[in-house]
Write a structure and sequence with these properties.
Multidrug-efflux Transporter Regulator, Chain: A, Domain 2; Rossmann fold
């Protein structure tokens, strides 16, 4: 298929596979395990097939296959050995590698087949905790090394969001409005919502009534919900926004909105650790992660 990223540098392969570039060069020179093409300036460029082969080489090597023996395998023997190891090794590691490939190849079919395989062996909650969270953490590391472009993250994030929304929709049918309502939103210009989407799923799974407002909500919109007589718990998640130098002002505005009410706000994210709660007049709780908050419920 016509992927946006069809070529990878040796540094890309190092970041994705965890194998040092120096080691990859040795494997090429000594065992001819990979055969990159070279630019006019002699820079190695690797294909999607090279990436997939390297991930399988790492899989075999991590399961007691010597590199020298891997190098002697025919294509048929290599594929057969990889498949046999796949069935014996941790499903989580295998799935994460397949999700990596689906992301770089923009391959929705591979993503869906991997996800469906996981659901044969795990609950959705286990898939999210054991596979999606480590995978998303790895994406964060790839961002730091300039291996990803926004299209990669957007593609895979939207696919994961679809799975969360599908699971959430299945639960919605059995939930009725209660005395307490959870209203979930992201700050203005914040678009990273996978954690909030999953939290919405967990709240509904536990029998709570929620209203999901999604990305980039102006704070003055919260006033609308005060017309409702039910107790409201507003929940927001902060990954990028607001900027650190605007955090104090942001929470002061929330504090001013919520004071003299019975409503509360829960803010989630690493940014919450730098917020001083001593002078708040309203009920504001801070958690560094979704899991920390869920443990308190």
């Amino acid at each position: 298929m016509n992927s946006i990223k069809q070529d990878f540098t040796i540094k890309d392969l190092e970041n994705i596979s965890g194998i040092k570039a120096h080691t990859i060069r040795i494997w090429e020179k000594r065992y001819a395990l990979l055969e990159p093409r070279r630019t006019n300036t002699n820079i190695r460029l690797y294909s999607n097939n090279d990436l997939q082969k390297l991930l399988n080489i790492v899989l075999l090597n991590n399961n007691n296959f010597k590199i020298s023996n891997i190098a002697k395998m025919s294509d048929h023997e290599f594929i057969k050995a990889s498949r046999e190891v796949v069935f014996k090794t941790a499903i989580d590691d295998r799935a994460i590698n397949r999700f990596k490939l689906s992301m770089f190849q923009f391959d929705k079919i591979l993503f869906n087949s991997t996800y469906d395989d996981l659901l044969q062996k795990k609950t959705f909650r286990e898939v999210f905790k054991d596979v999606f969270i480590p995978f998303l953490n790895h994406i964060g590391l790839l961002w730091q090394t300039d291996t990803l472009i926004p299209a990669h993250e957007n593609f895979i994030s939207n696919l994961i969001a679809q799975k969360i929304q599908l699971q959430t929709e299945k639960l919605q049918l059995g939930i009725s409005k209660s005395s307490k309502t959870y209203v979930l939103f992201l700050p203005e210009n914040e678009i990273h919502e996978l954690g909030l989407l999953y939290l919405n799923y967990e709240l509904i799974l536990r029998g709570n009534f929620t209203i999901y407002l999604g990305q980039s909500l102006p704070l003055d919109n919260l006033n609308y919900f005060f017309k409702n007589s039910s107790e409201i718990c507003f929940i927001t998640s902060m990954t990028v926004m607001p900027h650190d130098d605007n955090l104090e002002d942001y929470f002061n505005k929330i504090d001013n909105i919520l004071k003299d009410t019975n409503h509360q706000l829960i803010a989630i994210g690493q940014k919450s650790s730098i917020v001083n709660t001593e002078n708040f007049k309203s009920k504001i709780e801070l958690y560094t992660s979704v899991s920390d908050m869920l443990n308190e419920l």
